[in-house]
Amino acid sequence: MTVTTELKPLTDDVAGAQALVATMDDGKVNALSYDMLGALNEAIDEAEANDAVRAMVLTGREGKFSAGFDLSVMNGGDMAAIINLVADGGDLVRRLYGCAVPVVAASTGHALAAGALMLMGCDVRVSVDGPFKVGLNEVAIGMTLPDWAHTIAEQRLSKRHIQRAIANARLTDPAAAVDVGFIDRVVDTDELMASAMAEAAKMVPLDAAAYRRTMDGFRRPTLDQMAADIAADRAAA
Predict the structure, then answer these.
(1) Distance between CA 164 and CA 183 in Å, rounded?
(2) Which residues in the chain show pLDDT less than 70?
(3) What is the CATH number of the domain that holds 67?
């Protein structure tokens, strides 16, 4: 099992309000394989289909949120498979960014490449503090970020840091990643889930229908551009 889901109560003030907690754990580095992507999409489906779910919390295994795309595919030499895996990753990040319920990331450690891109798709990002690496290291390892990644990075990353984050493949620890724009705040490891659930509970007073309409209008240009970028990538495959 690559992703497990659990419903947890959010607040006593609104009866039945729940968070869907989706935990990535492939026993290794939480690579975005086809199986992992499929399981994460199923978790989003579950969150959006349940009216009691007022937020989704996305987390990982201890020390590792996600180290990015499955290297067995990325280094396998099959360009069609590589392009399609990255496009599927783009669809996932786009779904997180356009999710009908707020998404809170509880980052458990390293968040590299596609792991950092997932953070950009989440509404609120809480991370453990510590000697972990966060960022987009693609250029350093001979890869090029897809256009859809540029599109969301322009919305979520600091203008002061985006050049170094993308073109210079600059990695930081979680505390420094706050200023870059990958993370919103850092906490001690034993406070992570409680802090993420507290952030999710802040979403409960929001009117769910108004939230969906507002976020659709607010993020529609970015979502549409990402969809066009992903479609162009798939056509190239």
Answers:
(1) 16
(2) 12-15
(3) 3.90.226.10
